[in-house]
């Protein structure tokens, strides 16, 4: 039955949450328990309900989830939403019962109380459920088939829901047609559809959820409140008085009431949620977490002679135990003896149980278990004290009848004395054990609190020194600081065990100072929790910073190494270029081509210099270390000098080759050579630029007109004209009588010189064409 009710609530509450998300434009949830565990969707819901912007933790670890849920719980507390025994760990761990309880409190506040607050204020009433029931009864009083007395069984047949809608909107459907419908499921389906399509109310319930022997009260109450929100809301004082006169549900028995009263006397639970630690996803794994501290305040007396049950003159509560039934029937010795044997048998078992509890441990968690075990044992004593009292009263009554012989009377008196003595010994022993457990538990818990306080003080000093130490000043120092930080994280992991041991603290106070002691412990735990959370937050934030700086520093170092190697390679290449004493035109052409390629490489590498400056800026902005800044600036200045030297060497080599060409070939000017190298370099740069911009491959070559620089075109025309003139003159020379003399004498030196001039002209034309 309980599982069925939980399933109905889960389904209904999920629909309600999604209905709110639809209003806020948020994505729906699928599983109420798992989807709320990280706290993000819970904050989304509260954002819509409160109209406030609620920032969320960026990480996805357990601690981030705890922080999100804690933030949501604080928002609920600020809005006066009741949160009894609901902590962040309950929601993060997916506790079904408490998650449903949390959502119900949210529904109760925003769906029920907010909707009804105006009419409740007008009627000067504080019970929203009573107002809602009064409204339903007033609305359906003219429907003889309907008699709503609660929010459970009165709705099972579907008539009440249809009657409620029909009483305010008779134009929507015919009442008789609903009454004639065969099944409750059909009638409920009809009402839900009318409410959805005519009144705009989401179908939060399914017919099979209500058409049961005992529908879930919370789900029905939530849905009826939705109807109340859209229908007329008149409620009369007479209707309220009529509800107040309805028969009440059966109360608990006197025995149950006695036990509950005793339990509340000993176990008044108080929950205190504190600030949580932080963790970010940049950590390699979840390092540490921080739980909410919870203490249970057991209000009792420090005097072991005082007892929750009487010591000598036991009077039984008015229950229907076997002892009282004996007293109501005819009193005789045999029945008394039978009852006495049963009580003595239980008493012997209770004595053995107390003995079996053993010595009190020195481990705080074990003592907590012993404490709770003994508390249950004390509850069992309380439950049986009435039986002991009944036997004593029965013996006294039996003696008072005067029907016993002297020996029988003496025997009964001895039995009563023995029973009372054993009971008193058991009572005193159990109270003494309880007092000792209280004392040891408080001592151990205070010791844990002191140890945690000392550790926090030491760690705060440790983190302060780490904070004051500058990061760096070189990569190896930073790696050492990262390793040092890992040690701190490991220490936090170990300390988490002590933090966990403070979960569910047990506070033992006396009746006079209970509130004061509880408030003092709450304050102490709050301070410790805040300090722990601050250390966790600082540790995770610093871990993120260290990882970010380490990555940037490694990237900068890698780029520096690559750039330095490239500079060295290019400097070697420039040094190997021949700038004078060329053996032939091919060697000169090779040097010119090498220079052009190096210039193009230099142009391409400019972006690497820009990248170095960008990486340097990113690192220094995160590091903020003057020493590292100066060192890095010195590195980059050295690279800049090497770069400038390389450029100057290239220019010098180009000038030297130009001088060599003009020396050997007077018709070739230095400007022509320089411009030729520049044009080749420019062509290489254009190709590089095209590659960088990832242009599509060029189309097949077509006959097209090329637009070029007019000066280059003129120079090309002049060179081609000169080359054409040279070829014409050469042809004339070959046909002249002078050439016949050369052939006859075998002296071709002058002719070779003229041919070399022609080769040079052809070479220059080719270079110019390459530049185009």
UniProtKB/TrEMBL annotation:
One of its GO terms (molecular function) is actin binding. GO terms for cellular component: cytoplasm; organelle. Residues 449-498 form a coiled coil. Pfam families: CH, Spectrin. Signal peptide: none annotated. Residues 9-109, 128-227 form the Calponin-homology (CH) domain. SMART domains: CH (SM00033), SPEC (SM00150). InterPro entries: Actinin_actin-bd_CS (IPR001589), CH_dom (IPR001715), CH_dom_sf (IPR036872), Spectrin/alpha-actinin (IPR018159), Spectrin_repeat (IPR002017). Keywords: Actin-binding, Coiled coil, Repeat. PANTHER family: SPECTRIN/FILAMIN RELATED CYTOSKELETAL PROTEIN (PTHR11915). This is DMD isoform 1. It comes from Pongo abelii (Sumatran orangutan). The gene is DMD.
